[in-house]
Every structure is written in structure tokens, then in C-alpha cells.
């Protein structure tokens, strides 16, 4: 089904894969689609070290307030490029009193003041709006959401933390070493019962755990691309985030042109194909004809099985998930094997939603399985969220919505809630099948720490509809497939014209921002000292720690515009003791700055002075902050709050074996935190102190060996290191955060 090449490949004429060529690798690398787009956006003469400027940006209502507040504090006067503010995450305004709508009105006032585009709640999810209105061939778009992917429209789109968007608003650059580019070669044609989620899950299952495309650009090539509509390609493309890649790009064709023409932007089409000879740093080969309906079981999109395989061995496979749930929580609070009834798996809920599932084609396909059938009146329920008002409007006109509701399906508005725990939260111990983006253990409303846990599995809309039509019995779409036609989509943007505020280059720069009582400025951050003392406030030895564990999504996001208020939830579902410990460390630092002597710190300083070569150190010579250790932190969301919440509680660093994503590491840097790594297993525990001398001097060197000292009963030297930092990133860390850097 999926083959990974062990080394790089040459692609000849876009069709033939070979391992050798008479053209050098360096020259043939210029033959990729990615190279030409990156080159046209690079403001540096050096293509090895890119300094990128983007054509447009997008944020939603969990992220845009903090970004605008940061940019404003840093001196921004106007939005220099089109900046879209959507309201698709806290759309319901259901938790936190006036907080959510206050933030929406802040966003509208910012669009009016600085010249932005404002999309009100329920009008469109962020990525569908950008597909319909902004993505085009050869463009680059930056978004403060990890699923910022518009590669199927010829756009390299990158999801990053808010700090990187702030830099663009300040006319600075996105700095990154030239990434490796991996070919995703699509061959053959998918079966008619196979959907985009099936193909996406097959890819994720093959590459994620191997780190095959981590922080790289995946480039979709091969004849199989043109066997799919662009709407279908979009469904695969948005899921590339779950491979841990940096971004994606696809070859374009006449169907791409037709998509852009339908949306009134044919002038943004151009043919994108690799040159006659193109070198890729690796290749993922997929025979589309062999892909079958798939399911990603909890607790990650890479936990992939064919649905047929699961149905043949349900007890054995579901038992593994139960055991993983117990290893995550230390308790037996989830049972899935009890969902097996007469050898069949019974499901309690289905969801088809958002940027991955709510596309036109997916919902029309769902009707073809459900038409004339019933979801039943038992436990099983099915909810559908069209991805935008134009999609919803056309489904209404064609009678698709009527057919769905007559089958017992609940129709929602354009909303991202099911993806992050703010909509259709499953029942405790329930099994939910979803055509959405993620199924992390702490994500869709589960709170394992208080004994609430559900199981979310990812599937394609076709198999979800087949399951609904089969009375909630887990069913592959292949089982119930019947031939049918998909009517052409008719795009009508009247709803956008009547509700969306288009203000780019029309800012009223004297206008005041509208603040609600929960919208708070960022607290002051101290610049980095020469010597730092870290106290370990959490130690997480899980193989991967997601951003949802670092700062939970769901109802907590109502406080995202209040830095200290949101920080109260840091690690709350993974390590409930963290916040108290971090606050105590911050109190120690406040006392130190006020020349208040603490008995514990006095003893710590005595230990520091026993380190050979350190001379006489006093509390005045040391900056105190908290830190966490995690094996591999930062998988998942781009939300900068995963870092900023630690920072406002007084954190100075993270320590890890490796960072799960580039964007989480960037978030740490932009909030003035040192992104330490270590090769050895940690010899320190929670509440231990780690002393790191001369850290600013270390930042001037290669940072490959940074001596640090664990101050236990015995002093143990450990070696930390920091992977490559740009000179600007070093200055941001030394300044204490991006705001301080820009003020300076």
C-alpha cells in the first residue's frame, strides 16, 4: 500500500522514480515545486538559510487576541499583508460569560483599526475560508493553527505559534534552514468507497512513528494526483499536519484551475510541476488502488488499522488501546472490549466536521450511504458540520441537508469544536468515530485526571455514514457501497459579501480597540541573566507530550486572552501539581529580586559555590526560574499558549530529548525560553535544582555542550545542548521574549 524509500530519489518528467542521475543532487533539488516557491519568497540571497515573507496570514479566535496584543506592544501600526481573523473555535460563546464575544468584538475592532479581514462566528472554519478566498498557486500563507495547509491549491502554508505571525506583522522574516523535501508519489486510482481521510491515515500510519517527514515539506506528485478532485485533495492535504511535516505542496492541473475559477480567482492559477529532473530527500510511494477504508484508533492519528482488519480481530486490537489508556492514567477508566457485541463493534457517536470532514464532497458522499436509512433512536448519534456557509448553502439547495436530517443526522454550523473538545463531547467511556483531525487522549473533552475519558477514532465520512446506516455497528464503506454520481458544487459567496468585513488597506488607524474585562496585557518578562537556576516542576516520561497536555484545549481556551488566567490550566490534565510548583518558584525569584533571603535558596547557593571554578556566587548573580522535562514535547497544536503559559508562571527553559515539532520549539524561543536538549536520561527529579552558569556566553558558541549541575545531595554534572539558533533567536532569548526584543 505505502512504501518508504530508504534514501533520496530522482523524479524524471514527473513520473519515473530512479535513484541515480547524471545531474547533481544540489542542482536537481532546484527542480522541486517547493524550491521555486521558497526561492520567490526568500528575502535572503542564501537559499540555505531562508528569510521568508508571506503573502497572507490567518488566525482564529483562540490565537488572534494574543498575537495582536503582542504586535501592538511591539510597535505595530497596521497589518502590512492581508490578515484574516476567523471566529471558528470559540464560536458558541457557551463558557466563560462574555469572554468569547468580547474577544470577537476585539477582533472586529482590530480589523477596522489595522486593516484586516474579519469572519464572524459560524460563517466558515479558518482553513475552508482560506481555501475559498486566499490560497493560490505559488503563494505562501502563514497561520496560527497547526492545520494551516493549502498545498492542494499550490500554496505552501505553514502553521506556527503566534510569535512568528507577530514577526510578519512587524515586517520581519520567518527564518528557517532550507528544509528537506519528500516526494509523496501517488499512483493508480482510489476505489470509489475510499475517501481522503483513508488515504491520509495510510500515509500518517506509515511515516509518523519513523519521523520520516518531520519538519520537512511533502510534495505530492505522480499521476494519481489527477485522479482526484481538488476538494478531495484538500481532505488529504490538511491531514499532512499529523505526519509532523513542516508543510505541503501539490502539483496542480486543470482541476485546480476549475476550483479557483469556481471561486472567482482563475487568475491565481498556474501549472506547478516538478522540472524534468527533480531530486527529493526521500519518497513515500502510494498505490491508491490498494488503499482500503481505515481507522485511527486512540490515542493518535498514526495508530492506524484497516477497518476490515479491526473487525476481524476486535478484541485483540481494542485490548491494546485499553492498556495504553491505563498506562497514560495509571487507572482502568476506559474499556473498549465491552463495545464488542456478538463479535461486532458498537459505536456510540459519529462526527463529520471542519476543515477535514465538512467539505462538500464528503457530505454528499455521506448522503449516498444514509439516504432512506435511519441513524436509529438508541445510543448512536451522528452530527455534521459543513465547513462554510457557501458549502452549507449549496447542500441546502441540492436537498442534501434535508436527506441528512430525515435520516436523524444533526446539522451544525461551521465550527471547529469537535476537533478540540468544545462541541459534541462524547459520553464517558464511549467510542466516537470522527472525520476530524486529531484523537489525542486529552483533546475531545476527556479529563483523564478526574476519571472522565472517552475514545475517539478517526475515520472517513463514507465509513462513518456506513456505520450510521448499519445501526452504529462499525462498518467499512466498502460493505455498503453503491454506484452514484456526485453533482457539481456551485459556490455562492453571498453570505460572505453580507457578513465578512473586508478591511485590508482600509484601516482607521486612530480607532480604539474594544477590550472586554478578560482581555489583559502580557505581564512584564525579565531579560536573561548570566547565570540561571532552574527548579524542575514537572517531569514527563511519556514517549510524546502533546500541546493539549501542556495547555488543555476545550473550555480552558475561553481564558486565552488573559495570560495569567489561562496559565492556571497549564499541564492541569497531565500534572495537576505543576502550576502550584511553578508559582512557588516565581515567588522565590520575586523574593530574590527584593533581596529577601530564603533558607532553601541559601543552601542552594552554598552548593553552587562548591562547584569547581565557579568562584564566589551570590543570589544577586543568579536568575531563578522553573522548567519542565519531557521526552518529546510539542506534538499537535500550534497554540503558542503551550509555551507562554509556562513563561508567565516564571519558566526559563524546557529540557527534552527532542522537540516533537519545530513550531513548539519556536514558541519557546519567542517567549524567551531556552530550548535545551540532552542525550542522556535525566538524573534529576521534580523539585531538584539545576544550575547553569554563563548561559549568555554559551549562546555565543556552538551550544553543543552546555555544562549544568544538578544540586542534589551530591552535585552531578550533566551536559545540555541547544540545536541551531539564528542570531535573532539568540537575541530574543536574551531579551526575555519577542516583545522585549522588539521594544529594544
Detailed description of the structure:
- The chain is of the alpha/beta class and 744 residues long.
- It folds into four domains: 1-31 and 179-291, Aconitase, Domain 2 (3-Layer(aba) Sandwich); 46-178, Aconitase, domain 3, CATH 3.30.499.10; 295-491, 2-Layer Sandwich (Aconitase, domain 3); 531-743, Aconitase, domain 4.
- 31% of the residues lie in helices and 20% in strands.
- It contains 28 helices and 34 strands.
- A seven-stranded mixed beta sheet has the order 31-30-28-26-32-33-34.
- Strand 18 and strand 19 form a beta hairpin.
- Helix 3 (64-73) packs across helix 6, helix 7 packs parallel to helix 8 and helix 13 runs parallel beside helix 17.
- The chain starts with a strand and ends with a helix.
Please sum up the structure shown:
This protein has 744 residues and is an alpha/beta fold. It contains 28 helices and 34 strands.
Shape estimate:
globular
- CATH H-level homologous superfamily name of the largest domain: Aconitase, domain 4
Number of helices: 28
Write down the CATH topology of the largest domain: Aconitase, domain 4
Task: Name a few traits of the molecule.
single chain, 744 residues, alpha/beta, Aconitase, Domain 2, Aconitase, domain 3, 4 domains, seven-stranded mixed β-sheet, six-stranded mixed β-sheet, 28 helices, 34 strands, 20% strand, globular
Topology, element by element:
Blueprint lengths: L1 E3 L4 E4 L3 E3 L6 H4 L4 H9 L7 E4 L3 E4 L4 H10 L9 E4 L12 H16 L2 E3 L6 H8 L6 E4 L12 E4 L2 H8 L4 E4 L3 E7 L8 H12 L9 E5 L8 H8 L9 E4 L3 H9 L14 E4 L1 E6 L6 E3 L7 E3 H6 L1 H16 L10 E2 L2 E2 L3 E5 H4 L2 H11 L10 E5 L3 H9 L2 H7 L3 E2 L5 H4 L10 E5 L19 E4 L2 H9 L7 H4 L13 H6 L1 E2 L28 E10 L4 E2 H4 L12 H5 L10 H16 L5 H10 L13 E9 L2 E3 L5 H8 L2 E6 L5 H9 L3 E4 L11 E4 L2 H6 L5 E6 L3 E6 L6 H9 L2 H6 L1
Amino acid at each position: 500500500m505505502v512504501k518508504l524509500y530508504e534514501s533520496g530519489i530522482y523524479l524524471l518528467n514527473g513520473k519515473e522514480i530512479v535513484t541515480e542521475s547524471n545531474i547533481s543532487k544540489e542542482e536537481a533539488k532546484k527542480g522541486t515545486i517547493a524550491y521555486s516557491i521558497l526561492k520567490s519568497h526568500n528575502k535572503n540571497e542564501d537559499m540555505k538559510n531562508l528569510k521568508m515573507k508571506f503573502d497572507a496570514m490567518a488566525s482564529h479566535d483562540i490565537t488572534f487576541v494574543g498575537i495582536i496584543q503582542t504586535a501592538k506592544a511591539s510597535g505595530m501600526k497596521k497589518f502590512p499583508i492581508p490578515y484574516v481573523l476567523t471566529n471558528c473555535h470559540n464560536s458558541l460563546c457557551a463558557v466563560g460569560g462574555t469572554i468569547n464575544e468580547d474577544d470577537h468584538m476585539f477582533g472586529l475592532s482590530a480589523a477596522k483599526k489595522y486593516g484586516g479581514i474579519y469572519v464572524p462566528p459560524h460563517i466558515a472554519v479558518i482553513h475552508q475560508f482560506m481555501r475559498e478566498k486566499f490560497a493560490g498557486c505559488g503563494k505562501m500563507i502563514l497561520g496560527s493553527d497547526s492545520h494551516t495547509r493549502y498545498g492542494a491549491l499550490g500554496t505552501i502554508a505553514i502553521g506556527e505559534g503566534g510569535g512568528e505571525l507577530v514577526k510578519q506583522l512587524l515586517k520581519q522574516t520567518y527564518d528557517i534552514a532550507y528544509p528537506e523535501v519528500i516526494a509523496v508519489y501517488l499512483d493508480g486510482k482510489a476505489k470509489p468507497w475510499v475517501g481522503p481521510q483513508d488515504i491520509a491515515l495510510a500515509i500518517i500510519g506509515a511515516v509518523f512513528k519513523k519521523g520520516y517527514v518531520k519538519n520537512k515539506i511533502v510534495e505530492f506528485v505522480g499521476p494519481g494526483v489527477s485522479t482526484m478532485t481538488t476538494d478531495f485533495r484538500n481532505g488529504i492535504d490538511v491531514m499532512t499536519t499529523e505526519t509532523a511535516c513542516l508543510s505541503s505542496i501539490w502539483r496542480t492541473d486543470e482541476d485546480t484551475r476549475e476550483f479557483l475559477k469556481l471561486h472567482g480567482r482563475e487568475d491565481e492559477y498556474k501549472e506547478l510541476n516538478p522540472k524534468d529532473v527533480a531530486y527529493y530527500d526521500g519518497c513515500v510511494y502510494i498505490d491508491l488502488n490498494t488503499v482500503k477504508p481505515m481507522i485511527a484508533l486512540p490515542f493518535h492519528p498514526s495508530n492506524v488499522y484497516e477497518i476490515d482488519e479491526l473487525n476481524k480481530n476486535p478484541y485483540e486490537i481494542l485490548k491494546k488501546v485499553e492498556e495504553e489508556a491505563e498506562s497514560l492514567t495509571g487507572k482502568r477508566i476506559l474499556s473498549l472490549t465491552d463495545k464488542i457485541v456478538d463479535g461486532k463493534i458498537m459505536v456510540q457517536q459519529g462526527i463529520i466536521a471542519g476543515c477535514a470532514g465538512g467539505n462538500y464532497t464528503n457530505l454528499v458522499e455521506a448522503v449516498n450511504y444514509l439516504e432512506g436509512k435511519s441513524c436509529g433512536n438508541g445510543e448512536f448519534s451522528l452530527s455534521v458540520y459543513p465547513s462554510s456557509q457557501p458549502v452549507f448553502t449549496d447542500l441546502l439547495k441540492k436537498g442534501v441537508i434535508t436527506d441528512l436530517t430525515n435520516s436523524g443526522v444533526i446539522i451544525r454550523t461551521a465550527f471547529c469544536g469537535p476537533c478540540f473538545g468544545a462541541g459534541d463531547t462524547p459520553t464517558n467511556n464511549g467510542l466516537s468515530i470522527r472525520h476530524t483531525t486529531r484523537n489525542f487522549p486529552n483533546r475531545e473533552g476527556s479529563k483523564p485526571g478526574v476519571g472522565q475519558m472517552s475514545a475517539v477514532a478517526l475515520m472517513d465520512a463514507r465509513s462513518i455514514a456506513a456505520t450510521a446506516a448499519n445501526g452504529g455497528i462499525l462498518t467499512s464503506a466498502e460493505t455498503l457501497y453503491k454506484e452514484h454520481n456526485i453533482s457539481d458544487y456551485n459556490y455562492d459567496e453571498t453570505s460572505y459579501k453580507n457578513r465578512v468585513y473586508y478591511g485590508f488597506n482600509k484601516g482607521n488607524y486612530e480607532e480604539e480597540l474594544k477590550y472586554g474585562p478578560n482581555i489583559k496585557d502580557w505581564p512584564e518578562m525579565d531579560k536573561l541573566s548570566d547565570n540561571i537556576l532552574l527548579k524542575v516542576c514537572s517531569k514527563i516520561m511519556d514517549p510524546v507530550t502533546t500541546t493539549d497536555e501542556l495547555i488543555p484545549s476545550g473550555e480552558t481556551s475561553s481564558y486565552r486572552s488573559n495570560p495569567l488566567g489561562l496559565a492556571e490550566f497549564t499541564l492541569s490534565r497531565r500534572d495537576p501539581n505543576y502550576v502550584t510548583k511553578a508559582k512557588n518558584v516565581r515567588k522565590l525569584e520575586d523574593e530574590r529580586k527584593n533581596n529577601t533571603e530564603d533558607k532553601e535558596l541559601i543552601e542552594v547557593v552554598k552548593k553552587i559555590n562548591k562547584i569547581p571554578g565557579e568562584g564566589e556566587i551570590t543570589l544577586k548573580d543568579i536568575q531563578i526560574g522553573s522548567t519542565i522535562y519531557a521526552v518529546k514535547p510539542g506534538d499537535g497544536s500550534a497554540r503558542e499558549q503551550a509555551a507562554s503559559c509556562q513563561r508567565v508562571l516564571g519558566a526559563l527553559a524546557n529540557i527534552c530529548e527532542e522537540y516533537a515539532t519545530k513550531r513548539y520549539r519556536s514558541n519557546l524561543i519567542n517567549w524567551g525560553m531556552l530550548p535545551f536538549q540532552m542525550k542522556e536520561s535525566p538524573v534529576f527529579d521534580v523539585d531538584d535544582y539545576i544550575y547553569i552558569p554563563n548561559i549568555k556566553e554559551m549562546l555565543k558558541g556552538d551550544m553543543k555542550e552546555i555544562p549544568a549541575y544538578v544540586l542534589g545531595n551530591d552535585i552531578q554534572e550533566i551536559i545540555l545542548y541547544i540545536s541551531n539558533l539564528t542570531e535573532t533567536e539568540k537575541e530574543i532569548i536574551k531579551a526575555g521574549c519577542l516583545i522585549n526584543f522588539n521594544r529594544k
